[in-house]
Amino acid sequence: MKVRPEKYLRYLFLPNLLELFGTERTKEILSVNPTIIPVREEAATVLITSYVYNKAEISEFKDISIDEALSLKCNDHIVWINVDGLRKDDVDKLGEQYGIHPLLREDILSINQRPKMDEVDEILFSLMNILYYNEEKQSVSQEQISLVLGKNFVITFQDDPSKDLYHALRERLKLPTSKTRGKEADYLYYTLIDTIVDHYFVVMDKLRDRIEDVEEEIIRGTTKRSLAQINVLRKELIVLKRSIYPVREVIGGILKSDSELLTEFNERFYKDVYDHVVQAIDLVENYRDMIMGMQDLYISNVNLKMNEVMKVMAIVTCVLAPATVIGGVFGMNFQVIPLSSHHWGFWIAVGAMFIIPVWMLIMFKRRGWF
Question: Which one of 8, 73, 145, 359 has the largest count of C-beta atoms within 10 Å of its C-beta?
């Protein structure tokens, strides 16, 4: 029989405890089964934006149809097509027009795919996760993005049209002095990946602030909510680890690739991205160590409180022991008991019951027992 803790926690006076432990978040993070093919719902809204440029000029096409995007392919300009919101028919049409292999199209339409890199039929393909920090839920959310590099074109596929990580890149691309405009398509490909990796640090800074807040709260005083908050932070680190660690293999695969799409001059830029990914992984490990340290600190505080309680109970027991012994002696059923017939016998016994515990307390204090 499977025991569900939330069934019994509801009877405790902790109304927000189930929410803090985040059982639904656990299902969301760990509900990944590669043997089951997930069913992707067709996007209700599809937003396609394209830029066709060279060093001298640039043309911007906003909110265009899939047929218009198909007609933009050319050899003397670099084309960047960004698709927000995925539909199978749209992906297939773009794939046929730009030579994207059917296996890569399946990866584009996949859900909860592990970040990866493939090179198929003169196409360089990378699948990564864009990370965002949800201020309302205090959690890390992710959006899958697929990047396709071909001869003089780059195509990016994203899930959510409402989120835009490349606004600053688009604005820079419009400038005549933009470095991207004067380089090959692989430099744009690098810039897109670099923007994703740089945004990892923005998300981790948000999570670091929350870790520091929880740490300060535990240091000030351990509460019943502290362990729940530590548990939630550990789950968010799972999201970071699952999204960031494989990116090192993605960048490493690009660096090892012999594709003609990658110029030797731009290799240094991909090495820089690789260094950033390694740094991000180191930060995730540091955050993990901090959370484990907070858990140890929480356990130490709980044990310290328990020791304080036990010490107080032991002192109370010791203080009451003389009164118990004296009362037991004078309560024995014998005919002859010392001081039992004395005029001051009762008051002497009561005085001893008070004087001896006071003397014991003084001795405990001198020994530093409390």
Answer: 145
Contact in structure between 139 and 168 (CB atoms under 8 Å)? no
Q: Which of 328, 317, 316 is nearest to 352 (CA)?
A: 328
**H or E stretch at 255:** helix 226-256
Question: Which structural domains are found in the chain, ordered by start?
Answer: 1-31 (no CATH), 41-301 (3.30.460.20), 312-366 (1.20.58)
What is the percentage of the chain residues whose pLDDT exceeds 90?
30
Considering the chain, what is the average pLDDT of its residues? 83
The Cα-based distances of 315 to 71, 140, 296, 353, 355 in angstroms read 87, 49, 28, 15, 16
Tokens 């195509």 identify what position? 155
Q: Are strands 116-120 and 58-61 parallel, antiparallel or unpaired?
A: unpaired
CA dist 336 to 332, 333, 348, Å? 10, 9, 17
For residue range 160-218, list pLDDT tens digits in order.
877 888 888 888 888 888 888 888 899 999 999 999 999 999 999 999 999 888 888 88
Q: What is the DSSP letter of 88?
A: H
What is the Cα gyration radius of the chain?
34
The residue type at 99: G
Q: Which two tokens stand for residue 215?
A: 């740490």
Residues 72, 79: contact at Cβ < 8 Å?
A: yes
- Residue 36 φ/ψ, nearest 5 degrees: -105, 125
Residues in the chain: 370
Q: Give the global pTM.
A: 0.78
Spatial distance between the Cα atoms of 273 and 14, rounded to a whole number of angstroms: 46
pLDDT digits (tens, 9 = 90+) for 270-279: 999 999 999 9
